[in-house]
Specification:
- The chain is built from 14 helices and 15 strands.
- The chain has helices at about 45-55, 70-80, 95-100, 110-115, 115-130, 145-150, 155-170, 185-200, 215-230, 245-260, 280-290, 310-315, 345-365, 370-375, and strands at about 15-20, 20-25, 30-35, 60-65, 85-90, 105-110, 135-140, 180-185, 205, 235-240, 265-270, 300-305, 320-325, 330-335, 335-345.
- It has an eight-stranded parallel beta sheet.
- Helix 3 (about 95-100) packs parallel to helix 5 (about 115-130) and helix 7 crosses helix 8 (about 185-200).
- The longest helix is centred in the C-terminal third of the chain and has 18 residues, at about 345-365.
- The chain is elongated, with a radius of gyration of 23 Å.
């Protein structure tokens, strides 16, 4: 139990699997995934993008393997990556066999388009031989024809039946190192399918709202869909699917987890929308601070408020706070206590320095984040 019982989330009990060196399910932290969008055959471009995603905090990264050239480059990419890679396979099951041999930690297969049960069995044998996990990726947009005929349209029951059919096939081959996704671009459909599946199986679940949209629309849709499932304890690993750079998916994923108190990484920013009372340009200040603080990985909090209406109250709850004042002088709070003032011209560099110092103290064990003290940390 946390210090605030109304913040507690009781996670669904799932068994744990390993994706390379990363545990998924059980009591392991909920992992954040993304997917590269460079041509996989271009190993250098793909490795460069993977590096940016790693810096953003990605725990697991998926790489599409649509052709022989991609799986040929995959070996070099897997050797360079610092996190486990999932090989994304569609249509051509032989790409899964090649990727398993080339160092994939997990094979993502879509049962609706991978082919016959015999081909799935070959993929299972390759996974076993190479120590790969498997993700069954059911998608409303590529359900099997017989299920579409049976149900008339993609629906929760159809997605779950597809997942259960392919779970059964893996288990018939004595394979249990799998996780499952039942994704849809319709958040209602996806959430209902995941809720049904969560009651039917004990394997880890990979959450996502597929084809969610651009940075803003996709973030909102994903936060509602993924967030509602996580709030009720369902989900062991997540991918936010955005028409945006993959590192943005990672950042949004962490923001969802931070909001729910399920996992923390970097600076949690509390800021006001600004109004005529603001003592400084809040919007531009927050943008500048978020950009300048991306290198901070230590979980901590920063409040940026334009005036004294809510500023002091929010500052009492955060590690560092700033509240707008008159004549270009603004109050700085440290660990919830008023400490000193700072002028407009020096504000951003000064706050960045304070955050870096506090992060170092937390890492050294000489300070504790206010989020921990107030029960807001994961």
């Amino acid at each position: 139990m946390s210090l605030r019982p109304w913040r507690d989330i009781a996670r669904r009990k799932s068994r744990q699997i390993m994706v390379g060196s990363v545990p998924v399910g059980g009591d392991a932290p909920i992992t954040v995934q993304t997917m590269t969008n460079t041509p996989t055959s271009d190993a250098k471009a793909t490795i460069d993008q993977i590096r940016r995603c790693e810096e953003a905090g990605a725990d697991i990264i998926r790489v599409s393997c649509p052709d022989v050239e991609s799986t040929a480059a995959f070996r070099q990419i897997a050797r360079a990556a610092r996190v486990p890679l999932v090989a994304d396979i569609h249509f051509h099951y032989k790409r899964a066999l090649e990727a398993a041999d080339a160092g994939a930690a997990c094979l993502r297969i879509n049962p609706g388009n991978i082919g016959s049960s015999e081909r799935v069995a070959e993929v299972v044998r390759a996974a076993k031989a190479n120590g790969c996990a498997i993700r069954i990726g059911v998608n409303a947009g590529s359900l099997e024809k017989d299920l579409l005929e049976k149900y008339g349209e993609p629906c929760p029951e159809a997605l779950v039946e597809s997942a259960l059919d392919h779970i059964r096939l893996l288990e018939e081959h004595d394979f249990r190192d799998y996780k499952v996704a039942v994704k849809a671009s319709d958040a209602f459909l996806a959430v209902a399918a995941y809720q049904q599946l969560a009651e039917a199986v004990d394997c880890p679940l990979h959450l996502g709202i597929t084809e969610a949209g651009g940075l803003i629309g996709g973030t909102v849709k994903s936060a509602i869909g993924i967030g509602s499932l996580l709030w009720f304890g369902v989900g062991d690993t997540i991918r936010v699917s955005l028409s945006a750079e993959p590192e943005e998916e990672v950042r949004v994923g962490y923001e969802i987890l931070k909001t729910l108190g399920l996992r923390t990484r970097g600076v949690r920013v509390v800021s006001c929308p600004s109004c005529a009372r603001q003592g400084f340009d809040v919007i531009r200040t927050v943008q500048a601070l978020e950009d300048a603080l991306q290198h901070i990985k230590t979980p901590m909090s920063l409040s940026v408020l334009g005036c004294v209406v809510n500023g002091p109250g929010e500052a009492r709850e955060t590690d560092i706070g700033i509240t707008g004042g008159g004549n270009g002088k603004h109050m700085v709070y440290l660990s919830g206590i008023t400490d000193h003032t700072i002028a407009d011209a020096d504000m951003i560099a000064h706050i960045v320095g304070l955050v870096e110092t506090k992060a170092a103290e937390i890492e050294a064990g000489s300070a504790v984040s206010m989020d921990t003290l107030h029960g807001k940390a994961a």
